[in-house]
Amino acid sequence: xxxxxxxxxxxxxxxxxxxxxxxxxxxxxxxxxxxxxxxxxxxxxxxxxxxxxxxxxxxxxxxxxxxxxxxxxxxxxxxxxxxxxxxxxxxxxxxxxxxxxxxxxxxxxxxxxxxxxxxxxxxxxxxxxxxxxxxxxxxxxxxxxxxxxxxxxxxxxxxxxxxxxxxxxxxxxxxxxxxxxxxxxxxxxxxxxxxxxxxxxxxxxxxxxxxxxxxxxxxxxxxxxxxxxxxxxxxxxxxxxxxxxxxxxxxxxxxxxxxxxxxxxxxxxxxxxxxxxxxxxxxxxxxxxxxxxxxxxxxxxxxxxxxxxxxxxxxxxxxxxxxxxxxxxxxxxxxxxxxxxxxxxxxxxxxxxxxxxxxxxxxxxxxxxxxxxxxxxxxxxxxxxxxxxxxxxxxxxxxxxxxxxxxxxxxxxxxxxxxxxxxxxxxxxxxxxxxxxxxxxxxxxxxxxxxxxxxxxxxxxxxxxxxxxxxxxxxxxxxxxxxxxxxxxxxxxxxxxxxxxxxxxxxxxxxxxxxxxxxxxxxxx
Length: 525
Description:
The structure is a single chain. Strand 11 and strand 12 form a beta hairpin. Helix 3 (36-51) packs antiparallel against helix 4. The chain is built from eight helices and 29 strands. The protein is α+β, with helices and mostly antiparallel strands. The strands form seven sheets. Strands 1-2-29-28-27 form a five-stranded antiparallel β-sheet, with no helix packed on it. The protein has a four-stranded antiparallel β-sheet with strand order 3-4-5-6, with no helix packed on it. A four-stranded antiparallel β-sheet has the order 7-8-9-10, with no helix packed on it. Mean pLDDT is 82; it is low at 103-143 and 166-207.
């Protein structure tokens, strides 16, 4: 019998003797890292790497590790949670160093309780990360005195180093602050901010250091004189992951991996407000049908409801112990559906924040949701390559649509409750007859992954884009499947698309941290 597959060692380089690993080891950064940019960049790096294993025999293990990375990100980017976690981790480390002949006491958990429950049901073939710490061998008494002396000396040296590094960081921070207004921040080719170095090896709660301040929330709109581009919106510090037009077309909401939600006035291009209340990257934003409320969600598992007029968050729903990928309002606004990494669809009453139902929809993570215009069906698509149509009133499965060969990343109804468009990492988009479950058109739209699809309100045009930045945004004729136009796109991958309510404008959000507004009826280029 072959040796059991160890995804932590094979994929993340964490050997068995370092398992179970704490959150910092899981992300590949030093313990007690304080810089949120370093933490986010590391989490992004691990997420992108683990997603390459989502298709194949180890897909379930990949999804499991993605959930752990999401939990680590949410914990370490929340100041209060990080302080508590670091304190437990520091005490656990100190206890191990001082351990001698006494029986091993249970260490404080280094993995959140919800993650322990998740891993308890994981397949037995994977090595357990929740095994108790190994009992150390009893040290010979001859080494006892020397060990204690070495420990005391190590603590004294660490304390002095901490004080010196803290002073150095205070001076460096002051110098950087004075130069902030004129400093440009270099970016990597993929549009992500580069990691920065810090000097403290102890948690903020122990060493007295203060986490780096969040960047100022600013936004700028530049009007274009070169059609088909109309506007370019800048200000997000990380890739743009979510877009939503208000029902009247006056406003555009954006969400980003920088944890912010922003609202833009499309007549002037002015940013009306920006909020950084989420503890992790924002994955989805959606307006209520009447347009007075905005909902947002992300990898912190929380749904926030915002007053559009003043940008105040008036309700927070703790929707999931794992990250949420998508949310959508029902056409009548009485329900808000959410789904994500745990494969569960949950329905909420947005007026009270109470749950209105839930069911297990997919064995793997759900990446996309779409309500039919008549409210009778809720479509889900995800990592298992399938699309499923549900009766939202009962949670009953009505139909399964199969045809994609990779994860389904985006869904949109095509102007009615019969036709549904899906985009997949297999490079294809499919126009489905939702009544029969048969594809009307199966189009190979891109050489690389299709990450986003959008359909014009009248259902005549389909927009697609994805990881291949050079391929741009492609506009298709829904009736014939022919290519109508190609828009230049972005300098990096495009993760989200949205048509304006009148169908004249198409918004795109890129990994280059930019939002662009395009003339959607551009002739073929």
